[in-house]
Amino acid sequence: MSSSRRREAEHILKLCLGDHLRAYQIVERQLSRAILRAMVLVSLSGVVVAATGFSGRAVAQTSPVARFCMAAGLLAIVVASLVAVAGVLRLRWLSQEIDDEPVVTLLRGLEVRDRKTRNLRWAVGLFLFGFALYCISIYLLLLS
For the chain, how many structural domains are there in total? Predict the structure, then answer.
């Protein structure tokens, strides 16, 4: 475990005046926010997939570039959703990480948070890349 994570765990405990439950709740809230953001990303991905059902054929008939941008963008968006689901929304209860030593519990929770945060960053990056390609395909449709 990294020393910066240990320092963070100790600072959280100090901030909570040694109240283990409050310190645990801080980490739990951070995890909840990451999960909420991943759920929003998956929902937006669903909207894009649904919109493709309506406009996909028209875009695909525009040009090979538009077809490629739409297909590649859609693929990136679907992969982003898979990363969000598998890497952030995968269920593992924070209470499974509880240890007799409060700092160890916080360290485990912070490690889970950091891993989910990394996965969320990847998912957001893939989503933005895919959405940009998807928007280019719509742009090409509008220009034709």
Answer: 1
